[in-house]
Design goal:
Number of strands: 15
Helix content: 25-40%
Distance between the termini: 38 Å
Structural class: alpha+beta
Shape: globular
Strand content: 25-35%
Radius of gyration: 19 Å
Order of helices and strands: EEHHHEHHHEEHEEEEEEEEEEH
Number of helices: 8
Length: about 270
């Protein structure tokens, strides 16, 4: 078993691959460049990113890259499947709640006083307009996209797909985990579920042969804004951080994107 880890998309990326081959590890090391390429397209915290440039052109069709279009299409499907409960058009709401910078920078502040932002558009207007032929994306005027955790989940899944031809592989992108299949000896992968009250402890140790695992929570990405504790899970019905009794939700599914969607719905809807 070989492992490779690095920082990307504001998270620790861990790749575990069931091999001792040096040649295979040369393929694994390419993942750092893949994540850099994807982040340059999908990050809202980079002023030069494709997403940042896109958000400055709301209301008009914008021709986008293959990566951007694929993630936008995934986000639209999730939006439709959840009847608008999960939408990528939440950046205005996140900024209104004070999530205006990367969490590493946000964590340095004890309190934030964000400016008022118009959040009046209803759920039915939160869909993307995708043109497959022209590969363009259009969002309502004044709105902004944030792919958030789904970009990480998608990147985790893509990395797993690229590496699974070489050996059984697990890719963990900040808790968004993609598993290609059983280990070479047919056994399952051990996956620990972190205890939100004790970082050195696991609540459970799962044994997973393949698929996706995702955890969504308000225990880590939280901050104080306007003297009130805030978090990044937006309830599109209120355009505010979800008022929920669930601290964290972990879901197993066929893919990490499906797991991410259901974990976020668990957070928003509550127990």
């Amino acid at each position: 078993m070989k492992t490779f880890s690095f920082q990307a998309m504001g998270s620790k990326i861990l790749i575990a691959i069931d091999t001792n081959s040096t040649q295979v590890m040369e393929e694994v090391f390419k993942a750092r460049d893949w994540f850099e390429e994807w982040e340059e397209s999908l990050s809202r915290f980079r002023l030069s990113s494709e997403l940042s440039q896109f958000n400055r052109r709301s209301g008009i069709p914008v021709k986008v890259s293959d990566t951007f279009f694929e993630v936008a299409t995934l986000s639209q499907k999730i939006n439709q499947y959840t009847n608008g409960m999960i939408s990528p058009l939440i950046l205005n709401a996140l900024e209104a709640a004070g999530y205006t910078d990367s969490f590493e920078e946000l964590f340095k502040h004890t309190n934030i006083f964000p400016k008022e932002i118009n959040l009046s558009y209803p759920i039915e207007e939160q869909a993307l307009d995708l043109d497959l032929l022209g590969q363009t994306v259009t969002i309502p005027y004044g709105s902004q996209l944030d792919f958030g955790g789904f970009a990480k989940g998608w990147a985790s899944h893509q990395t797993m797909l690229r590496l699974q031809t070489f050996a059984p592989v697990l890719v963990d992108a900040g808790g968004d985990i993609s598993i290609s299949g059983p280990l070479s000896d047919g056994s399952s992968w051990p996956v620990g579920i972190a205890d939100p009250f004790n970082a050195d402890n696991d609540l459970e140790l799962l044994s997973i042969a393949g698929g996706g695992v995702a955890t969504s929570g308000r225990d880590y990405r939280r901050w104080t804004a306007n003297n009130k504790m805030q978090h990044h899970i937006i309830d599109t019905r209120t355009q505010k951080p979800a008022d929920t009794d669930v601290l964290t939700a972990t879901v197993l599914a066929n893919t990490v994107m499906e797991a991410e969607m259901n974990a976020k719905m668990g957070m928003i809807l509550g127990s």
